[in-house]
Write a structure and sequence with these properties.
alpha/beta, Rossmann fold, six-stranded mixed β-sheet, two-stranded antiparallel sheet, 10 helices, rod-shaped
Amino acid sequence: MNKWISTYQFYDSIFLWALILVPVSILLYVLLKIKKRESLQISSLTLFSGLGNGYLSYINHIKFGVKLVALALLIIGMARPQISMNAHTETELYKEGIDIIISMDASGSMLAQDFSPNRFKASKELAIDFVKDRKNDRVGLVIFEGEAYTQCPLTSDRDIMIELIESSEQGIVEQGTAIGMGLATAINRLRESNAPSKVIILLTDGVNTHGKIHPINAAEMAKDFGIRVYTIGVGTNGQAKTPVAIDPFSGRYIYDYVEVEIDEETLKTIAKETGGQYFRATDNQKLKEVYKEINEMEKAKIKTIEYDVDLPEKADLFILSALGLLLLEFLASKLIFKSIS
C-alpha cells in the first residue's frame, strides 16, 4: 500500500477530500438496511429457483460495493494522479575542471621520522587520498631532489596516478633540494593547459640548495602563466630524527636529531606572488588537514539546471476503470437481476 501511495502524486489533490463520501455512504447504507429490509425480484425464476432472500441480499451488497469502488475511482481520477519523480532538478558538473600538479620533495631529509613512518611516505599516502577526491580534474606528479623530473604527467586516470605515486622513490637522482627546479618543472607541465584553473601544490621540508632556477624566479613564471601555487612546509618544530649519513657496511641510513630548517619566507613569497597560500604541516594530521583545506578551496565549477517535468498522467486509467465497473454492474442488473420494491 505504501509503495502504491509513493508511486503517485496528485495535481488536483483537493478532490481527494471527496473520498469522505465513501465511509459516509457505507454508514448510511448500513443504517437504511437496519430500518428497511429490501427484497429482490429475480428476472429468471428458473435460473435462480430455490434461492432465498439471504442470498439476494448478499448480491445486493455486492452491487452496492461495486458502485462504491467506482465512486472512489472517479474521485481519484478527478484528482489527476501522476507518476511521481524523485526530483524536478538536475545538478550537472560544469565541464571545465582543474589541472593540478603535485610537486613533491624527495630529498634525504624527507626520510625524517617526525612523521609516521617518515615525511616522504606520509606525503605520498595523503597525496593519494587527495587524488581520490579529485574525480573531475586532471592531476600530475613531479618529484624533485637535486634535480626534478615528471613522475606522472597530467591525467584524469586516477588509478594510474595513484599507482605512480605509490611507486615513486627517494634517491633516484642527485641528492639535494632543488625547490626552484621542482616548481619550474611543474609549471612546464601546466603552461599549455587550457583549464580555467591551474594549480601547483609544492611540498618541501627544506631550503633550496640545488638547481639553476631560483624559487622566486619560478614563482614569477607561474604568475605569468596564471598558475596558483599552494606551498606546504613539512617538518616538526625543533629537532627531528633525520638521516645524516649512510653506513658503508650495511648501506643503511644513520639517523640523528637535526634542527628542522624550512625556508618559510620563500614558500610564503611563492604563495603570495601566485595567489596561493602557505601551510605548515608538523605531523601527519596537520598535513591531512592541509590537503583537505586545499581540496575545499579548489573545487570544480558546478552549475544547477532546473526544469519542469510533464509527469505522466494516469487519470484516464482510474476513470475508465470506474466506468467499466458501473457498466458491468448495470449489465448484470438488467440481464440477470431485477430490483423489486
